[in-house]
């Protein structure tokens, strides 16, 4: 992908366990090494995921930092070897944090913990890595914690041309998302073409190449906004959501945070009980909503409200999580458009009176 004019490749990795036979680990890390080699050195590289390896900690080392854990295993040595051969580094160990913000995997029942989830980048990366740490408060149904890396992609300014001591550059167009679905309608396509034609007329051959380019880009965006409208991101609402479920979810989060802090078995049991109750309530609410809607459909079909049934069915079939909101064109604008479209402006033929 390209981010701020930088070519970036991101690998998601799930490595085999350190307990696996050596030949299987050789195959896996050999494939990983091969894929990294394919990328070359011309792109930024970010490798992240569950490596199932413990790389330990070292001082004055280019691959591993001084703030990791002590333990080093075979998978960890393989990770370090790959990083050294491709000039990469494990970013987790270069930032000082409390232990609770270092370890990425825990097993409370056996009192086990380790750092096995990593964010790996190039040693000479142009990206700015500000921090890497775990977040225990995010409940994702796993014994792994969320690992978050704060990465800044430096912004590269547009290339400027120096003319008589003055710097000129093309004005950047604000990124917008248009309601492209409306182009399915023929009248909307025709309206867009008309708006675009009107705006492109102003471009003359006397303009410079940069001015012509800027005018074309501006015309395309302006015509799209007028004819298509903007696509507005809206949050989808679950029809089964209610205040009771909202309170239970908040209670579950609080119970989880309390257990993380105390590590007491009683608090863990409380969290699991609230979690179980919340799931049951959500299942019940969903089932009740579906039963109600099915009854409504059964009542409407064949009656006067058949259209409402199909409206609901189509809503259920829709998989999109966002709704395209069209900025409607006023009726007077439509009137002016069709009057202009249907009015002939041809010159009348001169009528010659018989002599």
From TrEMBL:
Residues 10-147 form the Endonuclease/exonuclease/phosphatase domain. InterPro entries: Endo/exonu/phosph_ase_sf, Endo/exonuclease/phosphatase. Gene3D superfamilies: Endonuclease/exonuclease/phosphatase (3.60.10.10). Pfam families: Exo_endo_phos_2 (PF14529). Transmembrane segments: none annotated. One of its GO terms (molecular function) is catalytic activity. It comes from the Eukaryota. This is Craniofacial development protein 2-like. It comes from Sitophilus oryzae. The lineage of its organism: Eukaryota, Metazoa, Ecdysozoa, Arthropoda, Hexapoda. The gene is LOC115883379.
